[in-house]
Structures are given as structure tokens and as C-alpha cells.
Amino acid sequence: MVENRRYLTYVAHATLILGIVIVAFPIWVTFVASTHEPQDLLTSPVPIWPGGAFLENYRQVLGVGLEAAGGVPVGTMMFNSLVMALAITIGKIAISIIAAYAIVYFDFPFRMTAFWLIFVTLMLPVEVRILPTFKVVADLGMLNSYVGLSVPLIASATATFLFRQFFLTVPDELMEAARIDGAGPIKFFRDVLLPLSRTNIAALFVILFIFGWNQYLWPLLITTDESFYTIVMGIQRMVTVADAEPQWHLVMATTMLAMLPPVVVVICMQQLFVKGLVEVEK
Amino acid sequence: MKHGWIGFGAAVALIGFGAAQAQAAVEVQWWHAMGGRLGEKVNAIAEGFNASQADYKVVPVYKGNYTETMTGAIAAFRAKQHPHIVQVFEVGTATMMAAKGAIYPVYELMADSGEAFDPGAYLPSVTGYYTDTDGNMLSMPFNSSTPVLYYNKDAFKKAGLDPSTPPATWPAMGEAAKKLQAAGYACGFTTGWQSWVQLENFSAWHNVPFASESNGFAGLNTELTFNSPLHVTHIGQLAEWQKSKIFDYGGRRSDSAPKFYNQECAMYMNSSAAYAGVSSNTKDFEFGVGKLPYWPGADGAPQNSIIGGATLWVLAGHDASEYKGVAKFFAYLSSAEVQADWHQFTGYLPITTAAADLTREQGFYDKNPGTDTAIKQMTNKAPTANSKGLRLGNFVQIRDVINEELEAIWSGQKSAQEGLDDAVARGNKLLRSFEKANM
Amino acid sequence: MKKRIVFNHRVLPYALLAPQILITIVFFIWPASQALYQALLIQDAFGLSTQFVWFENFSELIDDEFYLNSFQVTVVFSAATAFLAMSAALLLAVMADRIIKGATGYKTLLIWPYAVAPAVAGVLWWFLFNPSIGVAAYILRVFGYDWNHTLDGGDAMILIIVAAAWKQISYNFLFFLAGLQAIPKSLIEAAAIDGASPRKRFWTIVFPLLSPTTFFLLVVNVVYAFFDTFGIVHATTSGGPAKATEIMVYKVFNDGFVALDLGGSAAQSVILMLIVITLTVVQFRYIERRVEY
Fold it and tell me: What is the pLDDT of residues C125-134, one digit of tens each?
């Protein structure tokens, strides 16, 4: 440090702790709500310390399944979310890394056309084009399938764009060296570029996994078979019950469980994620 | 491969195994919006039907809330992947009716499939909402309810009010609310579903039109009329009361329910189907059920209230053999036993007279006082053109418009007259665009 | 844009691009063009009667005061969300940058809201601020503020801003922290020797050096507020009260999905697409320049 002003360090710690408390508060309330009896949650104010129904609530959510969400056990929904999230993640990384490779390392007619074609899809949320996309998926017979859940969401340019940015920062000398060694484009990609992209792949893995896991409207629309329900849509279903009170204790228990996998992914891959994310943007 | 299995199944059936029957059962898809405990009950009904015969199998699918269910079915229809039966809320009625090529009217379905069907067995105040101008039933009523007044009996005692007589008129509501506030309650009363309770049912209950052309039954050229002096007086009074929390707004839909449960508000107007929820969430106090209040000066009040809830529509484009299953299922659903059970479990109205009678015979109303308030209120008088129901296109958005304008009135941004005039003007615009899209 | 030296191959680049192009055309370009065409139609919900009306849906939008309203709401919401999420994140990042011990721990505890689904975040905040049962609403009432986002448009706006910013703080925090750590310590030391106070050092040296990060985050946050907050609005306010929180992407959803006005909704999508493309180009040009220099 530049100078050692004690009080500034204390201020820093205090600010960070306050920040964490504010950031964590909604989750704390959720956790607390998931440990109470249903009646406790309909009287004002909602308790702010955990209650005694933790085991009971989680056992019900995990074991019996949620009538409120169509009787699908949380385990099944979490498995579906996992499959969907992984399919989106892996699919997107795979197709976009090769597409970015083609755009950066090759010169060919319509290169810019291809680039803009992909690029124009950047950031346009699925909500905006959802009905026509639904029709396409239905026409292709992909309703109620993992393919239908994941493939349409692979059509986005974010990953391609990030890989492109990264490839542009890779020193040209590497390629020259590879050429001198007589390495073809595929060998260069496999032996040089892919290992170099490890951190970026990890960062994208985290981002895309979360993106996939958190999808709501799309799975809601294209699944009619309970065995394909995902967890996020399950939570929304439990909240919007007609002519009845949401069973908040179970909603909150499910919410805790639904947040667990993406949070674990973020925390476990924190180093790679942060490094990859920030480097790509540099 | 597929044929192989069917062959195998047939062989098994020949041996007398019987299992092949389950395989041959024709599937009927039923998309619904019943979450929570109601969803369980829906599954139980389907299971009951499936167990009662072997030719058809009804598969209930929970598709989210009413809006999501309806849009899901429409999107599926456009992609030719639609279910046989879809549950549509009452505000979607005009949209469904106008889609002539997409729906299969229930009366035609029953006639085509040769299933015994007596329209006279159904409660006219329930089915009236869903019949065409000739009185033909277009959809099968499933979950219908009507708003009632829930009140906190303990609070009434504390405030020196008679706990067995809830206020019958609006002025009495105001008086009671003031006494309740004096007894320490923060607010007198709140309401759920404000448009449905305070305007739509208000109109029927006072026998004034909500919209022209018999509330839209007679044609698409209907115009809204809920800015009449009576409506303005009523909404103006509520807005006045909002200031001192005699009335306290608690959000759209049933978001205000906790205000009643945690004894912030001592009275609460909402669907009769909220009965189960109210009784399980009011363990700390005793509650009673009363009819909706009315303005004593209004001619013909109280008339009868109208329903809300949803019906089952049959979508066109499937095989005749499958529709036979749909018809059989509807017959099963209408049976007195199934209906009485559904009515008693959920608080929704029974759809047939027989089910209501059965419930009475079983002593349900005696054991659960107040549960018959809804039926009494519905059948208070023979329905008039103003109290048969509502049939408005784009009603979902019109409800939103009403919600928005009422919120502006409650918060004091607009007077009752301004807010209702604006709501009528904006609503009429939506009615015209619906007329245009369905010419 | 591309490498100075490139591979020459006739077929390979097309083969590499094929999967992405195929998926993009089938699931993006084709449906998006359908939406474009839909914008010129007036159609009933079931698609049984269709009229081609040219640009009537667009001209109706221009006359629609609520469309203008949703535009204004979006601008206010995006600006406030970006400002709140970025300033809170910057403050936390500056503090974390000071600390040597335990920084990783703080980082871990701050980044996970990033992982929470918007639809779920909406449910959490709805529960927290529910006027009748919410803890936050209760605390506010204790302090004498009668919180009611079901009635007060300002309260509702604050609710969605806070919920949206909450989710974005982690992301901004990571970038600001990385940006701060990349600033050479020698620069700051030199200023300290000149006797500049920590506050002055921050505003004269650190903040200007962070401006590329800040600009990048600004674009990201605005885009986030424009499009990714649908789930939050859907789960908390549904655009109410009285359209006070109806952001554009929610209006597209509501008009198309709930109200089944497909033509009007599609017309709004088209306008939204134009905005996205503009924002994208701005971001793209900017990043492009950074790479070249």
C-alpha cells in the first residue's frame, strides 16, 4: 500500500461487510422462509431467524415432489435443468469456437457476411421472437425434447464474439511458427489455439451454464410433458397459482435448491471465470 | 418396431392378459392452470375417469397460470400441436368464441359423439356466461366462483358489532369499518380482483350494464358503460375511504389476502373459491362469509352476482375417436358425485343442480356455514341482460386498463370520474381493435 | 478484424462456420423475419383471419401514448439501474483493492448473485418488499415510510431498479476490481509522494484510468437493463401500477403473449431490434478501436 492509514483499512472492511450483508440479505430471508411453517409466512412481518421446519420442508420438496408445480419432484426438474444447461453450454462453446476460428484465421468470400449474420443475433432476448421460434421448433417436431430445450438457445453470438476477441490477441508469431513446422489449420487449432483458450472456455462455461440454467419462458412454452420441466419454471409455477395462496415455505426451499448449482459453479470456477472474463474484454 | 409392439400387445390381449387395453387407450390431452392443491385435485379427477373405463386416458398437463395456459394452447394451435381440452379463464371467452375454426362447441361435440347431454341439468347462472345467443353451451364450465365478503368475527365482537350479521349495504360497510378501526384494526376492508369485484360484479349486483349490447353478448360492436353515475359514486366512495384506510388497496389479483390473514383488515372481498385458503390461514380468529354489499338507493339491487373462473374449451382438428373420449370425460366431469366433491373441496360452484342438491343432502353446508353464500348470491334473482355475464374481446387488456386506472384513482392521481372515463375510453379502443381483427 | 497472415483453405472455413450459421438461420433469422412480416399484419390470436395492413401497426404505436411511456420508463430504469449497479460495484471494488488480506473471501461472497435467475430474483424481491408481509417493507414502515409498490409508481420503480442492480453488482465488481488491479502502483505512489489525498488520487488518477472499463460496463449494463430484466419485472410488478414500470421488453411480451396482439407486439419487436443493433454497433465500434490501438 501507498501509505498505512489504519482507519482507511477499517473503512474498507466495514464497507465490504456492509455490501455483503446487503447483497446477501434477500438470500438470507429466502433461507429463513424455507425453514418455517406455512402460516408463519403469511403474518406480518415474516420472521427473520430460521424456524424449525427445515428438515420437513426440504424432505417434502425433495421426496414427495411439488403438487404445486404439477407433482414433479425437484430432483427431476434439477436434472432437466442440468441437461439443458450443459447442452446449451457445450453446444454453444463448440460451435462458436470453430466459427470464431474460421472468421479470424481464414480469408474467404462472404467472411464479413457470415460475421454480421452471426453478430446481429447478439443480445436479442428470446422473449422478443418467442412465438415464431416456437412455431419453427414445433414444425421440426422438437417440442418436449432436450434438443428443443437447448438448440434454439444456442443461436446467439456472444460466445463467438468473445472467442473472436481472444483470438485477435493471440500473437501472430505462434501461427508463423506453426506454419514453419508444417502444421495445418486443424493441427494448429488443436495443439496451439485450444490449449491457449482454456481460461476463456472456462469463463464462458460459467456464463453459459448460468444462462442455460436460468431460462424461464422458453422451457415453459415448449414443454407439456412433465418429465421435461425445469426448476426455474417450476418455481414460477408454484408462485402463480390460481385462486390459492402460494406455499411460500416450499417455494423458498425450492428456490434455495435452484440457486445451489449455479452458485456452486460460480464459486468453484471463480479464478478461471474471473480471469477469462476480464481477459476477453481487455 | 412400433408395429411389432402393437402386435405383441394384441397377442397378450388374446391370451387374456388385459394389459393391452391400457396400451390401446386413446389419449386425451387436457391443459389446465390449476396449481397447488387444486392441481392435485385435477389429477385425481383424471385418474378417477381413467380408472372408470379403459378406452380413453385423460392426461392433465399443468401449463402455468391462466394467461400462460391460454397463450400456450394458442401457440400450439398455430403449430398444429394443440391439446384436445384447454382451460380458459372467463376473460378469454370472447377470444375463444370468435375463433370459430379453432374451437369445437361443447353442444356440438356432445351431439356428434352421441353422449347423453341435458343442458337443463346445468345451473343457468353458471352456464349463461358461456352460451351463444341461442342458449347453446359452447364450453364446459369447470371452476366457477363468485365474489363474497369474508369478515373477521372476532374483530366484529371487539368492535361491538354483531358477528352474525355482516354489513349488507355500502353505507353499513363504512360504519362497520369505522368501528373496527376504532377497535384497533388498521384498515376496514380490502378487496381482491378489483375489476372483477368492484366493477364487473358490482354492475351485475346492481343490475346496471357494464357494457352495451347486453354486456357484449349481442355483438362485437359493444361499448363500455361503467362510468355511469352509480359506478362513479361507488368508486369515488372507495377512493375517499382509501384516504383514511376504511378501504385499503392491497394489489392486483389476490395479493391483498395477507392483509386479512394478519388481521390488518377486518373484512375482505374475494372469490368464494378462496374459502379453503381463508380457512387454513385464519387459525387465529373466526371468520364469517357474507354477501356482497349494495347501495340501497339503486333500483333492483341486489340482483345476482356473476361468475369468474374458467371453463374447458375443446379445440378443433383432432380425430373423431378422440373427441368421443372428450365427450365421455365431460359426462363424467358433470356427474353429481364428481361435481359435489370438487365443489366441497375447492369452494368453486357446482355446475349442476344435482351436485348442489347432493352437497346439501350430505350436510356440507350445515357443517361449513357460509359455503352456500356464493350459490345463494348467484341465484338471488333470475339473471337479466346485465347480470348474465360479460363477453368482451381483448378483455385481458381491458382488465389491465381498469387495474391501472383504478390504481391511479386509489393513489389520488385522478378523480373517480376521470379515471373511469379514461378506462372506458381506453377499453373501447381495445374493443374496436378486437372487432377489427375478427371481422 | 482478421490476422495479417491467414490460412488458405477452400472448404474448411465454411465447414467450421456451418453449424453456427445453420442454427442462426433456422432459429434466429427465420423466426425474426417472421416477426418482421407479422408486424405488417393484423391477425386474430389463432391465426384464422389475417389482413395485410402495411405500416398501420407502426403508426398506431407512434400514436400510442403508452408506447412513449414505456420508452421513457425504459430510459429512466436503465439509467438508474446502470448508475446504481456501477457505483455500488465501484465503491466495493475500490475497498476490496485496498485490502490485501481476505480479499478473495470478500470476492467470493460478492459474486454469487450473478448466478441467480432473474425470474427467481424477482420472486425474492417480491417476497422481501410485499407491502403486507415483506421484511423490507416492514423495516421501512418502522422508519415511517409507508411502502406500497402496488399503488405507488415510484416505489415500484425503486423496487425493480434495486432488484435489477442487485443482480448486476457482482459482474461490475469483478471488472472494476480487475481494472483497478491493472493500474500501475507506481503511478499512485508518485501521486502520494506529491501529497495528494486518497480521495484526490482516486478522482484524478484512478477514475480516468478506469474509463475504458467504465464505458464498457455502461454499455453492458444498459443492454442488461433493456433486455435481461424481463424476468424481474414479470415476477415483481407486472409493469404496474398504472404502467409505471412497463419497460419496452415487458410491453412486447405483454402485448404479444398476454394480450395476443401479435401485430402490435411484432412491430415493437422490430423497433427493439433496431435499438439492439444500434447499441451493438456502438459497442462493436468502440471495442474494435481498443483492439486496434
Answer: 888 888 777 8
C121 or B236, which is more confident: B236
Q: How many Å apart are CA C113 and CA C122, to the nearest integer?
A: 12
Q: Can you list the domains of chain A with their CATH numbers?
A: 73-281 (1.10.3720.10)
pLDDT confidence bin for A65, thresholds 50/70/90 = low
**Region for B347 from its dihedrals, namely left if φ exceeds 0, alpha if ψ lies in -120 to 50, beta otherwise:** left
Distance CA A228, CA A145 (A): 7
Tell whether the model's pLDDT for residue B262 goes beyond 60. Answer: yes
Q: Do A111 and C2 touch (CB under 8 A)?
A: yes
pLDDT score for B316: 93
Partner B contacted by C240 (CB < 8 A): yes
Structural domain ending residue among the three candidates B367, B383, B415: B367
Asked whether residue B219 is domain-assigned, the answer is yes
Nine cell digits for residue A197? 483458450
Indicate whether B171 and B104 sit together in one domain: no
H-helix or E-strand spanning residue B149: strand B147-152
For the cut 90, the answer to whether the pLDDT of residue B322 exceeds it is yes
Lowest mean pLDDT among A71-75, B80-84, B322-326, C177-181: A71-75
The CATH class of the C56-292 domain is: mainly alpha
**Interchain CB contact of A269 with C (< 8 Å):** no
Cβ B176 vs Cβ B304: under 8 Å: no
Q: What is the DSSP letter of B137?
A: B
Asked whether residue B357 is assigned to any structural domain, the reply reads yes
State whether B122 and B221 are in the same domain: no
CATH number for the domain harbouring residue B78 = 3.40.190.10
Contact yes or no for C125 and A26 at CB 8 A: yes
Residues of B in CB contact (< 8 Å) with C are 67, 71, 74, 77-78, 95, 98-102, 249-252, 255-256, 258-259, 262, 264, 394, 396-397, 400, 403-405, 407-408, 410-411, 413, 433, 436-439
Asked if residue B133 and residue B27 are part of one domain, the reply reads yes
The answer to whether B323 and B104 have CB atoms below 8 angstroms apart is yes
Examine the pLDDT at B20 and tell me if it is beyond 80.
no
Q: Which helix (H) or strand (E) holds B60?
A: strand B56-62
pLDDT over threshold 90, residue A240: no
Whether the predicted interface score ipTM is above 0.95: no
Lowest mean pLDDT among A19-33, A78-92, A125-139: A125-139
For residue A24, give the C-alpha cell: 446477501
Average predicted confidence (pLDDT) for chain C: 83
Element spanning B19, H or E: helix B19-24
Closest by Cα among C232, C276, C284, C238 to C257: C238
C77 within 8 A of C222, measured Cβ to Cβ: no
pLDDT tens digit string along B360-410? 999 998 888 888 899 889 888 888 889 888 989 888 889 888 988 998 899
Mean pLDDT of the C56-68 span: 85
Report if residue B140 sits inside a domain: yes
**B117-127 pLDDT per residue, tens:** 888 888 888 88
Residue C18: CB atoms within 10 Å: 15
CB contacts < 8 A, B to C, total 86
| CA pair distance A237, A226, nearest whole angstrom | 12
Angle at which helices A270-281 and A198-213 cross, to 10°: 100
Please tell me whether residues B110 and B211 are part of one structural domain: no
Whether residues B296 and B427 fall in one domain: yes
Q: What is the DSSP string of C123-137?
A: HHHHHHH-TTT-HHH
* Of residues B256, B262, B396, nearest to C258 (C-beta): B396
Question: What mean pLDDT, rounded, does chain A reach?
Answer: 81
Q: Domain span at residue B89?
A: 2-145+308-367
Grid coordinates given for B316: 378443433
Instruction: Kindly state whether residues B10 and B158 are assigned to the same domain.
Output: no
What is the domain count for chain B? 2
